[in-house]
Amino acid sequence: MNRLQFRPMRIIEVLGALTFLVVATITVLTIAPNAIRSASGASPADWTSAESGPIGPSDRDFLIKVRQAGLWEIPTGQQAQERAGSQRVKEVGLMLASDHVKLDEQVRALAAKLRVRLPSTPNSDQQGWMAELSQLSGEEYDKVFADRLRAAHGKVFAAVALVRAGTKNDEIRAFAQVAVDVVMKHMTLLESTGRVDYAALPTPPPPSPIPSK
């Protein structure tokens, strides 16, 4: 009698446990469909595929940053021809604008190919710098022009270098190499104006500890 009662009860317990697991799985997927994330913190849905390799959030952000750099540096470089007091600042502004016209053509073509949506306006910080410069002229314009652009290039350089080092996409890697070279060139040009306030630049992060042998 005890043996006959044991088997039905065991089957009921197993079926109950399976039902619980199914319901729990459905609940997790319903509440948090993107809960499973990669080691980088990005979910699989954040990545797309292309013939040149996978495209992740950092790759898309890189293209957006290059596009936004051009959206404010092209008109600012042109503006310098009218407002700058130094001939060197005018020359540097013209070179920055010219380089970004070419870079903008490349980033728009690559973004279209990789299906990355690009902005059509500068970001809020860039708009603020443009508004600030629009109120200045002469020597004051030269100083703010050099400081704002040099600081912005320093930030972009760090971001682009990280993408160049770690992207999994061949076309992004090649374009990041171009962008790194352009940003480095522009930092050097801006420094050649003699108006950059190096003390105002962010302090580099402390070095990583040397691993013990």
From TrEMBL:
Coiled coil: none annotated. InterPro entries: DUF4142 (IPR025419), Ferritin-like (IPR012347). It holds the Pfam family DUF4142. Residues 58-188 form the DUF4142 domain. This is DUF4142 domain-containing protein.
